[in-house]
Specification:
The chain has 336 residues and is of the alpha/beta class. It contains 9 helices and 12 strands. The strands form 2 sheets. An 8-stranded mixed beta sheet has the order 6-7-8-3-9-10-12-11, sandwiched between helices. Strand 9 (227-232) and strand 10 (235-241) form a beta hairpin. The model has no long low-confidence stretch (mean pLDDT 89). Bound molecules: iron/sulfur cluster. Iron/sulfur cluster binds next to loops.
């Protein structure tokens, strides 16, 4: 079992996980790597964020961790037990302890079920019979800040924020140890995003939950995550403490993402790092450092040699030339 930060036993330990997709016709099959060997651990009570542009592999990785996506190699250990080797039936009890919150708050809820039935559906799915469902409905609605009479509403009668709260209630219904939340604030107004994030943070503290948050929204990451991993073409390019990464990103891709999403602080000057728009196709991964086709700091070595992982304290950076704090981008040519 991997020992995480502070000597704590990790609740989730992912080692060298790979996901391969088969594409093409019967005569021209090709395997492409969607997740290209990532390792991380999450400690009890900790929030870990997976960040990246769409297509970076973060949702595929989360689904693989939860057993919803087949993996081609590597391991997933949850609460001390390997779970990547389990079949669907054996995964069922694991999903009580590791629940998943999907994107699209309204679309992921059955339109014909009332909210009261939706929040208690996990009890029925997992065959938990020794509970009073009426009381559980009241308890769960109260836990997520919804009035008790919402039990009689249907999903189409909910706002985006209310639907997300119902999603949260379903995720915590069976008292899990960990939640994986895929874009928990997608499609919500900024003020409602803050409410949902505060709710998740509050529940994490009250229930001692670990969380994995998948998002492309860096403000969400800064708000809730203790540690983060930045993904590019299915690999981690930088992992570490969220605050330290926000203060001084060491991988050029992280620096570019942060510069495109500056904190709303008018006293801070921001140099926007412009990247050429095209993310390379997974079918044609660039040689060497896969980010070299977009990297303003790229040097000749970058196009031929894949970078090894550089460790700086608890930071891990996949770059030949990690940035020093305050590094400014070189003169940019041809950026979009
Ligand atoms: Fe940029 Fe080179 Fe570092 Fe890749 S290895 S991120 S191309 S500086």
């Amino acid at each position: 079992m991997h020992i995480g930060r502070g000597g704590m036993s990790a609740i989730l330990d992912v080692r060298d996980l790979r996901v391969t997709f088969r594409v093409g016709s019967i005569t021209q099959r090709r395997d492409i790597l969607g997740v290209a060997g990532v390792s991380f651990e999450v400690n009890p009570g900790e929030t870990f964020a997976l960040v990246g542009e769409s297509g970076s592999g973060k949702t595929t990785l989360a689904r693989a961790v939860n057993g919803l996506q087949e993996i081609s190699s590597g391991s997933v250990t949850f609460e001390g037990n390997r779970i990547d080797t389990l079949d669907t039936r054996s995964m069922k009890p694991v999903r009580r302890r590791m629940s998943m919150m999907f994107q699209d708050p309204v679309g992921s809820l059955s339109p014909r079920m009332k909210v009261g039935d939706l929040v208690t559906e996990p009890f029925r799915i997992h065959g938990v019979a020794d509970v009073n469902l009426r009381e559980e409905t009241r308890r769960l609605l109260s836990l997520v800040g919804l009035p008790a009479d919402f039990a009689e509403r249907y999903p189409h009668q909910l706002s985006g924020g209310q639907a997300r709260r119902v999603g949260v209630a379903r995720a915590v219904a069976l008292n899990p140890a960990m939640i994986i939340a895929d874009e928990p604030t997608a499609g919500l107004d900024v003020s409602v995003q803050g409410e949902v994030l505060n709710l998740l943070n509050d529940l994490r503290e009250r229930m001692g939950l670990a969380m994995v948050i998948i998002t492309h929204n860096l403000h969400v990451v800064h708000h809730v995550a203790d540690r983060m991993a930045v993904m590019y073409l299915g690999r981690f390019v930088e992992t570490g403490d969220t605050e330290e990464i926000f203060q001084a990103p060491a991988h050029p891709y992280t620096a570019a993402l942060l510069s495109a999403n500056p904190e709303p602080d008018p006293d801070k000057a921001h140099d926007r790092i412009m990247l050429p728009a095209e993310v390379p196709s997974l079918l044609a991964r660039p040689p060497g450092c896969e980010f070299h086709t977009r990297c303003p700091w790229a040097q000749s070595k970058c196009s031929t040699e894949p970078p090894a992982i550089v460790e700086r304290d608890e930071r891990r950076i996949a770059c030949h030339f990690p940035l020093d704090p305050g590094a400014r981008p070189p003169e940019q040519k041809g950026a979009a």
